[in-house]
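COURSE: Structural Biology Practicum
ASSIGNMENT: Worksheet 4, Part C
STUDENT ID: 0417
INSTRUCTIONS: Below are two proteins. For each, the amino acid sequence is given first, followed by its structure token string. Answer the questions at the end about the second protein only.

PROTEIN I
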Amino acid sequence: MRVCRYRRLQGVWALLLCVSVVLHLLVALLVLSLYPPPCEPLQSSSSQPHPNLTSADGTRRRGKQEVREGGADLSKLEALFSHPLYNLHAPPSPDEDWLLRVRSKGAAEQNAEQWLSDSKEGFDPIHWNTSTDTHPPWLRFHLGISRRQLYQHRDSNLPALLEEMATSRIVSTVQKTGGTQLKLLMTFPNYGQALFKPMKQERLEETNVNLYYFSDFERHNAEIAAFHLDRILGFRRVPPVVGRLIDVIKEIKDVTTDHKLVRTFFNSPVGNSCFYGQCSYYCSTEHAVCGRPHALEGSLAAMLPDLSLAPRRSWKNPWRRSYSRSKLALWEKTPTYCNAVKKTPPYDRGTRLVDLIDMTILDFLQSNMDRHHYETFEFFGNNTFLIHLDNGRSFGRYSKDEPSILAPLVQCCRIRRSTLLRLRLLTLSQYHLSDMMRASLSQDPLAAVAPVLAEPHLSALDRRLATVLQTVQRCLLQHPQHSEVIYDDIPDYPG
């Protein structure tokens, strides 16, 4: 009896074991069907060429998501840049309309020899002459700066310049002096240089509501987005900027000659490589910049020509803020403030006032409250564009708009006709500003990691654009003579 009972128990145990195995297999199959296998690991952007800014390539991965919208809108972006408003006929540019000019053959050869004699280990040999074909992209960028813009609308050198900054080997890194936050100057083998701003916070993280505008973080993705927005608006006054993953050890610590910078490196408790540099704000162990464990996101902005070659003049923005926690600026208390500005040089003649309002519109769209100064090239005098530098405090909030940024437009009721027509164009369904930005930003190398701008920021652009156009419409209602509001810089353009 005991033997029979034992055999029956063994049979039951065997049956239960089989049922358990079958159930486990079914659960495993169900889980696999619900959760597909992860994507292949991403490669560093430094090893991938930067795509053409207007060419429609295949879909690109952002982490585990495909950029379907950005890829689909590349054709729309190309259509926008092909629109007549972006291809207006420009008169021939005389020599005095170019910032730099190539010297004669003999002088150019002598200059190349001077470069070569000063070359250091890690730099490429110099083989430049008067032919632009021999010039590296950064030099072609400098030679292409004119009285009207930093680069041409269909500049064939722009993709090469962005690719150089995104992929070229870094031979030297030092901390750039001045400013309130950490930034680095990086040098490439062909003597090109770019300004690096590291990642400080996540894309979707909004600025703390209790922070004043002058104590906000600078954001690397804001610098990238500002370049793309400025280009979509047709200004071309922000120096080219590209995103890049930097190795904190190999591309900063190991190649720097800045001993003060080296002393600020340390390893975090979780093993990440960190540093904090020296600056007025946020340069301490509490605000260190850290890799993961060595990879660090950042923006690289093309450097403008050296001040010894192309001096720049710094101008106080008439609508600058007080940078005080309690004191208001004069323009914040005086609705008729613009009347006084219009009588003050250089705003009393030429295009300086509408140039400043162009910059105001850019700043309102990207929510930049930190425009206390702006710069121009001295060589062009007062008859030139404003350089839209330093946009790191932009795109901090998407849930709130700051109407005070639009004060120059509200108080002066003045705008370029070409700017107004492009703004209206960007409200059309086929050219929505958010769609154009999404498509343009999808081509940046960092878009392979995550969208450069989170979707709420893109939606905010459309909302703010509507506010700008509503402000212009109120100005037109206040001034029956529309010529008092609209400065017609394109009299030959129909419509």
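PROTEIN II
(use this one for the questions)
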Amino acid sequence: MEIVRSHRQVAAAAAAAGGGGGGAGALPTYKAAPQLEVRLEEFELFAIDRLRVLKGISDGLSRGKRPEEMEKLVSELWKTHMRHQDPAETLNKDIVSHFVLRLVYCRTEELRKWFLSMETTLFRYRFRLESPESQRMLMTEFQLPYKALPHSEFEAVKDKLSQVARSIGQSANVEHVFFKVPFEEVPDLVASRRVFLSKGYAYVAMSQVVSLVVTQFRCNISKALALTNRKWTATIKEQEKDRLTPIVEALSNAYFGPDYSQPKDAVDISLKDIDQLAKSSFPLCMRHMLDKLRENHHLKHGGRMQFGLFLKGAGLKLEDALAFWRAEFSQKIGSERFDKEYAYTIRHNYGKEGKRTDYTPYSCQKIISATPGVGDHHGCPFRHFGEENLRAALNKMGVGGHALEEIMDKVKNRHYQLACTLTFETTHGVSCDSGINHPNQYFSESQKVLRAKNQTMESQSQSAT
């Protein structure tokens, strides 16, 4: 690793700045960026390696991996992309890469949300791999105001704690170290009924303190991202326009996360292509909206935004987008009313009106979290459809038998993106190891598969002649 100052000096500076933690500095808390100098090439390479880790975590979550599987996955990803024989090297790379990506992902709400979620998940599983002594040191570093439950109070609630342990399949022999905390500070433990609640307090075992630490970590990083965004907008972007800004923008394009843009190898689509592409390459959510648009010659605002930005990301140009929506809406409201009430929004989405913002298509995360009302057709079918309607829609795509039941099982367990991934694999006959994270990713991957199949058929045909 090529850092201007010595590795030992950098590690010491990192720890002194609050970046260290976890005993011998194995698990930083990233409270403040250390004062060190890093060569530009290392600046970018470290960030790319960390991005590979975060992308792997995102893929694992989208595939519905269980906690024990995620713990193993995080360990393997970290060992592959971040670990070095010298612990000081690993610590330096860890801290530098985090702050570089914090700069990259601070710039929009969607980017911040994804980065915060992935970094929190990474921290959670790294914390679980730490020794008990290291975990206690991290609790101290976060200045958590909790003290272990006195023996007398522990004995008074011991039977209740045993009942909770048995209810979640653990041994009735409960741990002896518990912390009494306000229940709202451990929402994940309360939601999964893994703690005993009494008079507004949750009794948290030492083995569960990860929830307390992660809550504080998430809060710290969330505030830091907002602050970094203000600094980036006010000064850094302009001051570093010839040095850091190009690297930051390149890194943000390295992963089609929540801000998925049109892929570089995408081809322009025309009006005549839409119906055929829908049958071959649209995800279920977009097929459904196209069907409803053709049926009703209208979509409400949520549907127009979700479907319109998807078509934009798939390669539909502004002129064709206006013609497409006008052709449908004019059948119900007339061309004059369309031009007056709807055309502006379409031009706005393409960055030609208002603030001239070039809007990007919605991610799966944003679509799943939507709350469609009566008469709305946007959202995620895997989450928002009833079972009967979802089965009918999947049958229409040619999904049935064992594959259908497997998809429905994922839906029942709320693994909506995994259900979409299985749908893609079933309809295309290929594996999608990265998982589906975005409707436009679904479209892009589908087009790649179909092009490959067509090329194979052409090669076989030429060989036969």
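ANSWER KEY EXCERPT:
Q1: Residues 210-239 form the longest helix (30 residues).
Q2: The mean pLDDT is 84.
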